[in-house]
Amino acid sequence: MAQAETVKFLLDPYLEWCEGEGIPIVEDFGVDLFTVKTEPWARFDAKGAFIHLKGRGDFVSTFLLDIGPGGMSAPAKHVFEEVVYVIEGHGSTTVETPEGRKHSFEWGPKSLFALPLNVKYRHFNGSGQDRALLAAAHDLPLVMNLIHNEEFVFENPYDFPERVGKAAFFDGEGEFTPVRPGRHMWETNFVPDLTDFGLKAWDARGAGSTSLAFILADGTMHAHTSEIPFARYKKGHRHGAGVHIFAVTGSGYTLLWYEGDEEFRRVPWRHGILYAPPYWMNHQHFNTSAQPARYLAIAMGSRRYPFLAIRRKGIEGATDLSVKKGGHQIEYEDQDPRIHRLWLEEIAKTGVESDMGAYIDESPDVQRSA
User: Fold this and answer.
1) How far is CA 1 from CA 5, 7, 9, 343, in A?
2) Hey, which residues does 257 pair with through a beta bridge?
3) Do domains 8-166 and 168-350 have the same CATH topology?
4) Assigned CATH for 168-350
C-alpha cells in the first residue's frame, strides 16, 4: 500500500503549483472578472486569483492580479510569456532589460501590454483610493507541465535580449507589417487604449468587420482586437482551444454550439467578461449595443510564431474560408436560420434596428418560414 501511494501517475504540475499558491481558483465557462474574489498572493505581494476556463486547453490560462490603493506588486521575473489586459484602475509598470535599462509606461482601463520573457518587472497602482485589476493571460501551463520545476520558471538567470524590442515599443509606438486582411500585424509591447486603436478591414469575417493582430514582445502568444459594427454581427467559426476572449467595448452575446446540438449555449458579454470557446466548438459574436463592439482575443500561436498546426492552417487561410471548402467559417447563407431570428429579437429589446440587410435576407416571409 505504501508503495502504491508513491507512484507518480497522471500528474499536472501546473495545477499542483496553482493549489500550492494559496489563492482562489475559479473554474467556469465564462467569468465576470469584476466579481471574482481575490485573496493575498505572497508571490506578488498583492491579491490574486486563478481563472481556469473550461475552454482554456492545454497551453494558456489566466490569473487576476488585484493591487490595492497606492500599492505595488513585488518585483518578479519568469520564463513564461504573459499578456496583460487592464480591467480596472490606473497605474504603471516598470521593466528592467537585461542590459540594465529601465522602461516605465502608464496604463489604464482597456490597456494591453506584454512582459518580455524573463525581464524584471513591477506593477504600481497609481490611485490612492481604488484598486487596480489586471488580467494576465499566460502560457505557464505549457512551461510548467513541460519543465515541472518552479525554480527554473521563477529564478532562471538566463536573459532573452531579443524579446525586449525597441525602446519605443514601451511608449505605445509600434510598427505595422501589412500582410493581407486578417493577417496584418502591429508589433509593440504596449497599447495604451484598445478602444480607439486603428484596425484594418477584414470583410471576409463578416458584415464590415475590422481587426488587427499584435506581435507583443516578439512572443509566441497571440493577441488580436476585432470590432463588430453597430447593428451587425460576425460569421460563425471554430478553432482550437485556449482562445481567451475579453469583451472591450459595447455589449452583446456569443452563441456556442457543436454540430448536432439542438440548443445553443449563450454567453452575454460586456467589458469585464472573459470566456474561451472549447476546442472546435462553433461560436458566433453578436453586437446588440448602440455602438461598435470590440473584443480582445489572446491565444497560443502568434502570426509570427504559429506554434500549433491548427493555428498555422488558420493563418494560411482556413480562418475565413467556408467549412464547406475545408475552412473554419460558417457563411451567413449556411447558418442556422434561428440565429438571425434570435438576434433580431435581442436588438429589438435595445431599440436598435438591424443593419444586416446587405448580408442576409431579412424579409419577414423568409424569417418566418426559415
Assistant:
1) 7, 10, 15, 59
2) 282
3) yes
4) 2.60.120.10
Pairwise CA distance, residues 359 & 335, whole Å: 12
CA 353 – CA 232 distance, rounded (Å): 9
**Taking the complete model, does pTM exceed 0.85, yes or no?**
yes
Q: What DSSP string describes 69-134?
A: TT-BPPPB--SS-EEEEEEE--EEEEEE-TTS-EEEEEE-TT-EEEE-TT-EEEEEE--SSS-EEE
CATH number of 8-166: 2.60.120.10
Condensed to tens digits (0 to 9), the pLDDT of residues 97-143 reads 998 999 999 999 999 999 999 999 999 999 999 999 999 999 999 99
What residue ranges do the domains of the chain occupy?
A: 8-166, 168-350
Distances (CA, A) of 229 to 182, 205, 232, 349: 16, 12, 6, 18
Cell of 127: 490611485
Point out which residues pair with 245 in neighbouring strands. 275, 297
Residue 79's identity, in one-letter code, is V
